[in-house]
Amino acid sequence: MTNQAQSSKESMLNNLLCCPFCGSNNLSTGYWTLDDGEVDAIECKDCYAGAPLTAWKERNDRSNK
Ligand SMILES: [Zn+2]
User: Fold this and answer.
1) Beta strands of 1-65 (E only): which ranges?
2) d(CA 18, ligand 1 centre) in Å
3) In the chain, what are the domains?
4) What pLDDT score was predicted for residue 48?
5) DSSP annotation of 1
6) 43: left (phi over 0), alpha (psi -120 to 50) or beta
7) Ligand 1 centre distance from Cα of residue 1 (Å)
8) pLDDT tens digits for 6-43?
9) Which residues have their alpha-adjacent CB atom under 5 A from ion ligand 1?
10) Distance CA 61, CA 11 (A)
11) What is the pTM of this model?
């Protein structure tokens, strides 16, 4: 089951296009612990920007318009 989770996470990462801050696609996924629990987060390995997955997607959507 971990394999399935991993591959879905990889395809999720591929759908994130690139870093909305510096344009890099050198991204990594992780978990952030917030007040309301753990969330999927994305971090850029080039500029070290990071955001929860939902916020990251919103930024990408906006920068693509
Ligand atoms: Zn970046």
Assistant:
1) 27-34, 37-44, 50-52
2) 8
3) 2-63 (2.20.25)
4) 95
5) -
6) beta
7) 31
8) 677 667 666 667 898 899 999 999 999 988 899 999 99
9) 19, 21-22, 24, 44, 46-47, 49
10) 17
11) 0.66
